[in-house]
Amino acid sequence: MPSIAKKARRREQFSGESIEAPSEAEAPQEQEQPKPPFPKTTVLIVSRNCVDNLRTCLNALKAAQYREWIETIVIDLGSRDGCGQIDVDFPAVTVMRLPRHFGKARARNIGTRTATGELMLYLEPNVELPPPAVAAMAQAFDRDPEAGAVLMEPYSLPDIATLRRWCDTGPPELPAILVRKVFVAGMNFFDEKRYAHFGGELELFRQLRIAGKKQIVLGDLGATIHRQPPTDDRPADQALLFAERILGAAAYLSKHEGLGVGLRFRMGYLLRSIFRFRVFSYLVTGQRLDGTQGNAFP
């Protein structure tokens, strides 16, 4: 194929004009695309009646470094305080409104399937992250091929005694969990039947351990954990939450320790709850916090 210089000489011969061939430096070159600072990350927040904390959380994310590489999704579980309308003030945030409390597992599944990020940051709405935090977590994950999760504090799978304590007093909530979306998809997302509201994180970390993945703990991110707002849940709602923790823990034990272990765990709470009609009824029927719970959590 004739070179640029040869073509120029031919045109010069026919036109009589002197045409200089462009130098290599002047020749048009393809622009190199800037390398992403980290894989695109979706921040997924499940909200319910926590509008002040949610607003603080989203304001902090709005100031995040490399904001163009961060997607934010809020899944609201039937809030009555305005959480579901938060996108009026934060138009860049995708808000998906569920009409009732369908449980955290379904909310996270909907958000994860919707997400366009390669990494998923499951963030509690009472967490205020400083601007560098999301980038620091994503970059730490991306640097280590053995990483399964990046956390702000370590997480250990509980024994049966610890599970009982979590059922009685409420489980610890991890402020932030960064995992790869493809891993969550590979475990067929969060099991809504076994773990409607409690137990999804148990299963996630169990699967990470089975896969031989390790935790990276970044405890110096400078995040602020705000106090959770006081709950307005009624006695029936509180009873269902208590039963939900028991049923989730029993399902986890049945799956990984054997059906008999899970059954004994559940039966122990049945005997303890015989004079607590609502809890006893939920445990007998297996009622879950999944949107089908009658008049609870309107």
Helix count, DSSP H or I runs of 4 or more residues: 10
Count of DSSP E strands?
9
- The CATH architecture of the largest domain can be named as Alpha-Beta Complex
Stretches where pLDDT is under 50 for at least 5 consecutive residues are: 1-19
Describe this structure as you would to a colleague:
By secondary structure, this protein is an alpha/beta fold. It has two domains: 41-225, Spore Coat Polysaccharide Biosynthesis Protein SpsA, Chain A; 235-285, no CATH class. It is 40% helix and 14% strand. The chain has ten helices and nine strands. The protein has helices at 4-15, 51-62, 104-114, 133-143, 160-169, 181-186, 200-210, 235-257, 259-272, 277-285; strands at residues 41-47, 70-77, 94-98, 119-123, 127-128, 147-151, 176-180, 214-217, 224-225. The chain has a seven-stranded mixed beta sheet with strand order 3-2-1-4-7-6-8, sandwiched between helices. A two-stranded antiparallel ribbon has the order 5-9. Helix 2 (51-62) links the parallel strand 1 (41-47) and strand 2. The chain starts with a helix and ends in a 13-residue tail after the last helix. Residues 1-19 have low confidence and may be disordered.
